[in-house]
Amino acid sequence: MSAVESRLVGPVRVVGVGLLGTSIALGLRARGVDVILSDASPTNVSIAIDYGAGRRAGDADEPQLIVVCVPPDVTASVIVRELSAYPRAVVTDVASVKKPVLDAVAAAGGDLSRYVGSHPLAGREKGGPMSGRADLFVGRPWVVAGHEGISYQAAAAVDDLILDLGATLVEMTAEEHDTSVALISHAPQVISTLMARRLIDAPAAAVGLAGGGVRDVTRIAASDPALWVQILGANAAPTASVLRALRDDLDEVIGALESSGASDTAWRRTVAEALAAGNAGVERLPGKHGQDRRYAQLVVMVDDAPGELARLFAEVGEEGVNLEDLRLEHSPGAQIGLAELSVLPETVDKLTAALAARGWRIAG
Question: For domain 179-283, is the CATH number 3.60.20.30?
Fold first, then answer.
């Protein structure tokens, strides 16, 4: 099968073939782009080559674009090195913090007319070249953090990269990016981690009751500590600002709960307003197709057996109901799963009755 035509001319040099680097390389190779792979680990390069992500570097290479995909604490130095080694190439990086990297490249004398930072908001739980996927970025936001030192013409190669990989291009300044990810990524990582920390000394009986609530809150707590120390250190001030505001909210709720035994019932209003504000915040999160639309949920019990989940999906479709979202959870100590189906509110009663009539057990 012939490759889909690429906007990039190539070659493209990918420095760092972990999850993101290998995924970028695989996506470009699927479009027929000549991809050059580089990594401090020769083993990682060999694995990525075996997976079809590209080829080894050669002395005559003249890349059009260089994508730096290395840990945050060495990103700036690698960018400066690549700018110097390939004076005709445009360089970008995928680090999750942008302003400190831009400042460090400028301080080191890097050619800012050929560098622009970027950040794909995509990933997986597992890292390394074996986890790479050509479709990792499809439909995901990818920020380009432009600055005054680079022309639109030079930055166009980075735009082409993003569009070739099926991502959605988002333009921001480096400062806007770092403030945004502090709120939507970095502070949530700290909050999730600290909540998971409470589970270390929790009684086994309490942990055995764990359901969707605690699992949702702690899901990202399994992230790599070494990587997150680097990320949080690079974006410390914006993240600390979000956490301070959260601390104030927590202090207010804690104070209300501590006064709940008094005759004064004002604490109820404080807690209720905090919960209602949480509802309002959740409603701002874009849902399917970017719409701020709320869905209704029903929970269906699914036997832990091959084909049962597929049968459920098929029968939902046969009823003419579109599945907007899905969450799966296993019931502790039982050979069943709980499938929480999100559908349009006007269809939930019809679907509940139809699935029950087909023999499905509705748990909620």
Answer: no
Residue 7, both tokens: 């906007």
d(CA 237, CA 13): 33
Q: 12-172, what's its fold?
A: Rossmann fold (3.40.50)
Query: Which of 100, 77, 72, 92 minimizes the C-alpha distance to 142?
Result: 92
Q: How far apart are CA 17 and CA 25, in angstroms?
A: 8
Which CATH entry fits the domain spanning 290-362: 1.10.8.60, 3.90.25.10, 3.30.70.260, 3.30.540.10?
3.30.70.260
Rounded to the nearest 10°, the torsion over CA 269, 275, 280, 281 is 130
What would the pLDDT profile of 138-182 be if each residue is shown by its tens digit?
989 999 999 999 998 999 999 999 999 999 999 999 999 999 999
Write the CB contacts of 5 (distance below 8 Å, at least 6 apart in sequence).
31, 32
Instruction: Find tokens 């390939």 and name the residue.
Output: 86
The answer to whether the beta carbons of residues 357 and 350 sit under 8 Å apart is no
- Sign, CA dihedral 150-156-159-165, equals negative
User: Which 3 state secondary structure label does DSSP give 345?
Assistant: helix
| Amino acid at site 358 | R
Give the side-chain half-sphere CA count within 13 A for 302: 23
**Which tokens is 279 given?**
């509802």
pLDDT in tens, 175-186: 999 999 999 999
User: Rounded to whole angstroms, what are the CA distances from 85 to 15, 67, 248?
Assistant: 13, 14, 49
How far is 126 from 189, CA to CA, in rounded Å? 16
Q: How far is residue 71's CA from residue 233's CA, in Å, rounded to a whole number? A: 12
